Amino acid sequence: MNELLPALYDHLEPVALRIARRAAEFEPIDAQRAYLIGVSRQIVEHGSFKAEAPSLVSPPGMEGTLGWFKLLDTHLEDFLAGHVGAREIIAEGGGRLWETFQARDLVCAVFGHGVARALAPLLPAADVLELGTGTGGTTRRMAADLTTANRVVLSDLRQSFLDRVAAELPGVRLETAIVDINQPQTGLGQFDLIFSTNCVHVAKDLPVTLGWIRQCLKPGGALVLGEGSHYSEVVPSPVSLVLSLFDGWWDVPTSPERPQPGFLLPEHWFGAFEAAGYRNMSMERWTDGRRTFGGVYWAFA
Ligand SMILES: C[S@@+](CC[C@H](N)C(=O)[O-])C[C@H]1O[C@@H](n2cnc3c(N)ncnc32)[C@H](O)[C@@H]1O
Predict the structure, then answer these.
(1) Of 90, 136, 145, 276, which has the maximum CB count within 10 A?
(2) Region for residue 67 given its phi and psi (left: phi exceeds 0; alpha: psi -120 to 50; beta: otherwise)
(3) What's the pLDDT at 4?
(4) Looking at beta carbons, which pairs linking 78-83 to residues 24 or more positions away fall under 8 Å?
(5) Element spanning 70, H or E
(6) 34: Cα separation from own chain's centroid
(7) Which of 199, 206, 209, 240 to mutate to test the pocket of ligand 1 (most atoms within 8 A of CB)?
(8) How far apart are CA 218 and CA 25, in angstroms?
(9) What domains sit in the chain, N to C, each tagged with a CATH number?
(10) Which residues line ligand 1 (CB under 6 A)?
(11) Which whole-number Å values give the CA distances from 104 to 62, 67, 113, 162, 263, in the listed order?
C-alpha cells in the first residue's frame, strides 16, 4: 500500500466535491461536457467524498493537481455553458503546470516511483522500452539504474519531451522513438521489459494495444504498468473532473470489459491482460478499503 495516497486524496475530495456539486446542476451541450457532468453526478449521488479538508494547509507537493482544480473552478460555468473551450483552459495552465503536475506532483509521482522501484533489480543487461515517457516523471527516477541496461528506448507522441528527458540521462544506451500506443508497432525490436506510467489507459482499443505490446516482448518478458484507478465502478477518481478537459481521457470508447473512460479498475486490467494472452499477472495494489487508488501491474508474455 502506498501510504501517501489516502492523505493526498482526502485533500482532493473536498475540492472535487465543491466543483462536482456545481457541475451536476448543468445539462450537457456536448459529449465532453456530458462526461464531466456525469462523473460529477456520480460523485454527488454516491455521497462518499469528504466535504471538509483534514487540515487547513494542503500537504506540499500537490501544487500541480490543485492548480488544475483551480483552473477548472475558475472556468467551470463558462466551460459547461460552452463560452470557453477545454483547450483554452489547458493553455492557461500551459506547459509549466503540465510539467509540475506530471513530473513533480505527488499524486502522479507515487506511480512513477512505484514503477521505478519495481523495475530497478531487473534492469542490468535488459532491453527496455518505455511508452508515454512524457516529462520523465518515471524515467528520471531510474537515471542511475538505466545505465546498467543494454538498450533503452524512450517513446511518446512528442519528440520535444523525449529530447529533454534524454538530455538528463547521461551514460544510458538510449534511443528515442515516436510511438502512438493506438497504432500497432513493428520494427522497434523485442524487449525484456516494457513499462509505462499512466499512459496505456488512453488506448482506444485496449485489446489491440496490449496485443502489440505483447508481440514486442521477448518470451518471458514483462509489461510493467503504473496506473491510477477509479475508486470503484460507481465512484470515479476525483482527478476525473480535471482530466475531463483532456482528450484521450473522457473520449475513450467503453465496453463491458472497460466500463469507464479514464482509469481502469484492477479487475478490468487483469481481464484485459488475460484476454491479450499475458500470463502470471500480479499487482502491488494501493487501496484503503473504501477507495482504490491503483498501483503497479505486472503481466508476462
Ligand atoms: C500522464 S502522462 C505520464 C508521463 C510519464 N509516464 C510520467 O510518469 O511522468 C501520459 C503521457 O502519455 C502520452 N500519450 C498520450 N497519448 C498517447 C498515445 N496515444 N501514445 C503514446 N503516448 C501517449 C502523453 O504525451 C504523456 O506524455
Answers:
(1) 136
(2) alpha
(3) 84
(4) 79/33, 79/36, 80/23, 80/26, 80/28, 80/29, 80/33, 80/36, 80/37, 81/26, 81/29, 82/29, 82/30, 82/33
(5) helix 63-80
(6) 21
(7) 199
(8) 51
(9) 4-104 (no CATH), 110-229+264-300 (3.40.50.150)
(10) 102-103, 112, 131-135, 137-138, 156-158, 161, 179-182, 197-199, 202, 248
(11) 9, 13, 11, 17, 20
How far is Cα 4 from Cα 12, in angstroms, rounded to an integer? Answer: 13
- Angle among Cα 124, 130, 135 to the nearest 5 degrees reads 115
pLDDT (tens digit per residue) in 73-132? 999 999 999 999 999 999 999 888 888 888 778 888 999 999 999 999 999 999 999 999
Task: Give the Å distance between the CA of 50 and the centre of ligand 1.
Answer: 30
Alpha carbon distance, N-terminus to C-terminus of the chain: 26
Dist CA 203 CA 272 (whole Å): 12
Residues in the chain: 301
